[in-house]
């Protein structure tokens, strides 16, 4: 099968290439998914799990990409809850070969049914962004109606999900980003916008929750804006500063089938819009991951482009 592989940690994206790899086999509780569309996070190439297994043994050449939408073609021994021919979406395990390939072996528990009226391209754009926003806001941030939220990177794939889910929960959302991001952040529901290059972040005053997708100096300054009892939630590692009278939490997103189903339903009924940027094919994926200009939104790879649309609603 065709797949994007990496072998050299120091080479970064320059070391990604299209290659032939053996088609995977289904282990106990696995399914084989024929991949129609796949998502990729650029920071994957800095994750230890991309290069080693859980025993810290080298596992290259490895296949990156963990978000998937496709069709189940085989079941491993003991697999329950899914069937051959079923449309699914979800996340591949961090320590296993990923989804920038024509097929992947994935634990059944990491997949949810993909409704027939949701495009595969949309399905592949949802798992990391949607689950990260949902878990960060409500499980870790304990967001409640009437609270205020700073959503850093509000024009990006995760930030736009954070904004929409927070607004639906009754929060006041302040988006941040570069000047060029203002309109997109507002379109996705931010009620205010802070241009981090030209505005003063501290002028927003105190907030109940900061969702940090940036880290560094912005993360440290954001900690000082969290009100007593509030929370700084980070997905870029432990914060260098903590709120004086609040919590600082960093987390790694986890796959959750009921939450995936909830996200898909929100997309179907119009409460949640995807933020898809570039869409390309597996043959052109490497070039898409090394753009010559800055892009916002999720990059999605159509592994089977002839089938990805199928006339279904795109919800983009």
Give a verbal description of the structure.
- There is one protein chain.
- The protein folds into two domains: 160 residues, Quinone Oxidoreductase, Chain A, domain 1; 122 residues, Rossmann fold (3-Layer(aba) Sandwich).
- Strand 9, helix 4 and strand 10 form a beta-alpha-beta unit.
- Strands 3, 4, 5, 6, 7, 14 and 15 form a seven-stranded mixed β-sheet that branches. A six-stranded parallel β-sheet has the order 10-9-8-11-12-13, sandwiched between helices. Strands 1-2 form a two-stranded antiparallel sheet.
- It has 316 residues and is α/β, with parallel strands linked by helices.
- The C terminus is likely disordered.
- Helix 2 packs across helix 3.
In short:
This protein has 316 residues and is α/β, with parallel strands linked by helices. It is built from eight helices and 15 strands. Strands 3, 4, 5, 6, 7, 14 and 15 form a seven-stranded mixed β-sheet that branches.
How many independent structural domains? 2
**Judging by the overall fold, what is the CATH architecture of the largest domain?**
Alpha-Beta Complex
Work out the helix count: 8
Proportion of β residues?
Answer: 25-35%
CATH superfamily of the largest domain: Medium-chain alcohol dehydrogenases, catalytic domain
From the alpha-carbon coordinates, what is the Rg to the nearest angstrom?
A: 19 Å
Q: Count every beta strand, where a strand is a DSSP E run of 2 or more residues.
A: 15
Helix content: 10-25%
Largest sheet: 7 strands, mixed
CATH domain class of the largest domain: Alpha Beta
Q: What's the mean pLDDT score? A: 93
Termini Cα gap: 30 Å
Overall 3D geometry?
A: globular
């Amino acid at each position: 099968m065709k797949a994007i592989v990496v072998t050299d940690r120091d080479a970064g994206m320059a070391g990604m290439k299209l290659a032939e790899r053996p088609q995977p086999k289904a282990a106990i509780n696995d399914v084989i998914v024929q991949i129609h569309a796949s998502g990729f996070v650029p920071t994957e190439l800095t994750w230890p799990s991309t290069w080693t297994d859980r025993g810290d043994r080298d596992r290259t050449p490895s296949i990156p990409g963990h978000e998937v939408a496709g069709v189940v073609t085989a079941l491993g021994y003991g697999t329950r809850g899914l069937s051959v021919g079923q449309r699914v979406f979800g996340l591949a395990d961090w320590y296993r070969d990923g989804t920038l390939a024509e097929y992947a072996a994935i634990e059944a528990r990491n997949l949810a049914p993909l409704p027939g009226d949701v495009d595969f391209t949309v399905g592949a754009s949802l798992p990391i962004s949607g689950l990260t926003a949902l878990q960060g806001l409500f499980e870790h941030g304990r967001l409640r109606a009437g609270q205020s939220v700073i959503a850093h990177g509000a024009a990006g794939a995760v930030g736009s999900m954070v904004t929409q889910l927070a607004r639906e929960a009754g929060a006041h959302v302040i988006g941040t980003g570069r000047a060029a991001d203002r309109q997109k952040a507002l379109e996705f529901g931010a009620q205010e916008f802070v241009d981090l290059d030209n505005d003063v972040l501290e002028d927003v005053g105190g907030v109940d929750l900061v969702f940090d997708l940036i880290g560094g100096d912005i993360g440290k300054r954001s900690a000082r804006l969290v009100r007593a009892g509030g929370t700084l939630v980070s997905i870029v590692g432990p914060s260098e500063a903590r709120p004086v009278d609040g919590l600082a939490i960093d987390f790694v997103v986890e796959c959750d089938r009921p939450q995936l189903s909830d996200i898909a339903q929100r997309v179907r009924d119009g409460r949640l819009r995807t933020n898809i940027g570039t869409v390309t094919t597996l043959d052109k994926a490497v070039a898409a991951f090394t753009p010559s200009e800055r892009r916002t939104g999720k990059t999605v790879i159509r592994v089977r482009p002839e089938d990805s649309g199928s006339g279904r609603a795109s919800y983009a």
